[in-house]
# Entry
Amino acid sequence: MAIGNQQSVITLLTDFGTEDYFVGAMKGVILSANPAVQIVDITHDIPPQDIHAAAFNLLATYQDFPAGTIHLAVVDPGVGSIRRPVLIDCAGQFFVGPDNGLFSWICQREGNYVARHVTNDKFFRQPKSRTFHGRDVFAPVAAALSNGTRPEEFGAAINDLVSLESLKTKVGNVGQVAGLIIHIDRFGNCITNFTANEFANTLKRGSKLLVNETEITSVREFFAEAAGSDGELFMIKGSAGFIEIAIRNASAAEVLKAERGQPVILVE
# Structure
């Protein structure tokens, strides 16, 4: 899929924060190449080097954007090393960034995608820094793409993207499904990899979740629902499409002493 529309959308997601010049420099490079492009900040508050948090935030947002959107994501602890810069054509959109698993959950969900190793350095900013590929590699590639450059001009297709662990749950003992906590948001809600669509009936049949030997049986439609008490852990269908564990006006993660990657057992 080629773009060729100079009024394209480029999103930015990084762990750079906003106290330093990094995000501004990337925007400057993009706008110098395509002043008509619309830049949308998803977030720049990903914890430093936290690829999993970046992958989740992309997974939760990419479907909200129009076809042809270019997602530029830079959480890159391997910058300057042999890790590859990649361009991925997936779900009618494009993803530009380091090959470190950042885009793998989207590729897992969608199934069909074309990934390319970005090797054509005529698109890079020169001289290229060894420590700031967001400005010198990824931003100019995203800008060139927004100006109509065909994906195949950036490099050859590859079929060995680095991947994070699968989001698929596993069937365990009779009546049990094994999952895990894939993200903990700033409110302390624990997002599991149980998708609300796949396990919709779970929230109606009286099933329970087990985390650190704690049972969660209560279900709510929204956080301030009257049923139950403020100190009660409950399941809720989250806005990202996954079943979450929450507690009203407190952190479920702290109450459960839970961390990302924590096993969660669904007992139906």
User: Anything to note?
Assistant: The radius of gyration is 20 Å. The chain has a mean pLDDT of 92. The chain is about 20% helix and 30% strand. Residues 9-158 form a domain with the Rossmann fold fold (CATH 3.40.50.10790).
